[in-house]
Amino acid sequence: MSITLSTSGTAGAFVSGTGAYVTSKAWAYYHSTGTAGIDNEFGFSGVTDHGTGDISLTFSAAQPNIYYSVTTAAGDHVRLCQDGDATLTDRCRLRSFQGGSSGTLVDNGRNFATIHGD
C-alpha cells in the first residue's frame, strides 16, 4: 500500500495514493441558523440555504460519481439526513428535522457531515 500525506491545505491533511479510498473525501461542521455558513471544513467550498432545514454543501472538487456515502450528525435533538433525490457530484443536499415524530424541518446551529467514496 502506498499513501502520500500532504499538509499543505489550511483545513488539514489530504491523503492520496493506493488505499486512500478509506479516508474521508470531505467533512464539514456547519450551521443553518441565521445566515447559513460553514464553521470548519475540509473538501467543501460553500453552503446554499434552500429554506428552513434544507441546505446544500458544495464540494471543493466534484466527486467522480454520485455513489458516495454521507454520514451526518446534529446537535439539539435534531435528525439530519441526505436528500436522496438530490444526489449530485458537485454538492450534497441535506435536511434537518426536529427530533421526535413531528418531522418538521428546522434550522440548527450544530451540524456535521462526512463524505466517503471513490
Keywords, please?
single chain, 118 residues, mainly beta, 4-stranded antiparallel β-sheet, 10 strands
Characterise the protein shown here.
With 118 residues, the protein is mainly beta. The protein has one domain. The chain is 0% helix and 53% strand. The protein is built from no helices and 10 strands. It has a 4-stranded antiparallel beta sheet with strand order 4-3-10-7, with no helix packed on it. The protein is globular, with a radius of gyration of 15 Å. The protein starts with a strand and ends with a strand.
Explain briefly what this protein structure is:
By secondary structure, this protein is mainly β. The chain has strands at 4-6, 14-16, 26-31, 37-42, 44-51, 54-59, 69-74, 78-87, 91-98, 111-116. 20% of the residues are buried.
Please describe the topology of this protein.
Layout: E1 4-6, E2 14-16, E3 26-31, E4 37-42, E5 44-51, E6 54-59, E7 69-74, E8 78-87, E9 91-98, E10 111-116
Antiparallel strand pairs: 1-2, 3-4, 3-10, 5-6, 6-9, 7-10, 8-9
